[in-house]
Design brief:
With about 280 residues, this protein is α/β, with parallel strands linked by helices. The protein contains 13 helices and twelve strands. The strands form two sheets. An eight-stranded mixed beta barrel has the order 3-4-6-7-8-9-10-11, surrounded by five helices. About 5% of the residues have low confidence. The protein binds ligand C2E and calcium ion (3 copies). One calcium ion binds next to loops.
Length: about 280
């Protein structure tokens, strides 16, 4: 992962322009925040549609900068990806998440915790040692951890991606294809990837109620995923009507404000202990 830093070392500051206003993040302040463990882990529950039980949670990074105040994750993650800090940030995210969740993940209910991986991290040298070392250090079973990988990762080096994912899967880790539908990955990768879950992006889930063609599209993605042996997670479910439509379509899991907003780990962890086996 060090090579990610070396490769992009030259970019010390970068201007990222989100829709509303620009935030100038300094390389040094994000580096210090990560190194000093000043970021926080929030968790957002995954809910099994059939039972309405929480079976796990996604780890989402939060950063409140002393100078800028709260910085949106898409802003500081994008900055980290562009400046090479993403290697350090990923190491932080894995260790902070496993440290907080270790005890709960060893409980008999066997909940899952998912960790986001930026596209290039999965195929960076050292990633496999990082994740397996952290599992050993925190004494967390590999089967409790789901790695969320976006389609973009697959485009960069598909052969390497498939090889790394296969080795991780063989060690017991689970893999989810994140933000499905918004990237440009060819459908042919879907059949080759050793993934166990497919997460349909929120932009498609928003259409499930009120847009007939949008609903048909989501229904078709769910059927396709099931035929390939993948469980489906719908992202960004904000109301009961959407949840009920997704249930009719056979969607396995949902995640969204309706079933639980991202919240500090300490608030969500007790809910995971009541989780059912995945
Ligand atoms: P993502 O992986 O697609 O995560 C889901 C995003 O949707 C989260 O945004 C979450 O707060 C938001 N969300 C969940 N349910 C709802 C809903 O019902 N409605 C709406 N409108 N939004 C919902 P967040 O936390 O701002 O994170 C943004 C992105 O930043 C994530 O998108 C992920 O790609 C990235 N990210 C966050 N934490 C990490 C991390 O530790 N490492 C890496 N590599 N990326 C991270
Ligand atoms: Ca994700
Ligand atoms: Ca996602
Ligand atoms: Ca998304």
């Amino acid at each position: 992962l060090a090579c990610l830093a070396a490769e992009r070392e030259e970019t010390r500051t970068a201007l990222y322009r989100p829709e509303e206003g620009a935030v100038r993040i300094e390389h040094a302040e994000l580096h210090e925040a990560v190194a000093g463990n000043q970021l926080q882990v929030h968790l957002q529950p995954f809910v099994e549609v059939a039972s309405r039980r929480i079976i796990g949670a996604e780890s989402l990074a939060r950063w409140t900068s002393a100078r800028l105040g709260p910085v949106r994750p898409d802003q500081f993650i994008t900055f980290a990806e562009r400046t090479g800090l993403i290697g350090e940030l990923t190491r932080w995210s894995i260790n902070a998440t496993l440290r907080l969740c270790a005890e709960v993940l060893r409980s008999p209910e066997a909940p899952l915790v998912s960790i986001n991986l930026s596209p290039r991290v999965l195929i960076a040298p050292g990633f496999e040692q990082l994740i397996t070392g952290a599992l050993t250090f925190w004494n967390v079973p590999a089967t409790s951890v789901l790695l969320e990988v976006t389609e973009t990762a697959l485009m960069e080096d598909p052969e390497r991606c498939v090889a790394v994912m296969t080795r991780l899967r063989d060690r017991g880790l689970r893999i989810a294809i994140d933000d499905f539908g918004v990237g440009q990955a060819s459908l042919s990768y879907l059949k080759r990837l050793p993934a166990s879950k497919l997460k349909i992006d929120r932009t498609f889930i928003m259409d499930v109620v009120g847009d007939d063609r949008g609903a048909r599209l989501v229904h078709s993605i769910i059927d396709l995923a099931h035929r390939l042996g993948l469980q489906v997670v719908a992202e960004g479910v904000e109301d009961e009507a959407t949840l009920l439509r997704l249930a009719e379509m056979g969607c396995d899991l949902v995640q969204g404000y309706h079933t639980g907003r991202p919240a500090p780990a300490a608030e969500v962890l007790p809910l995971l202990v009541q989780a059912a086996p995945a």
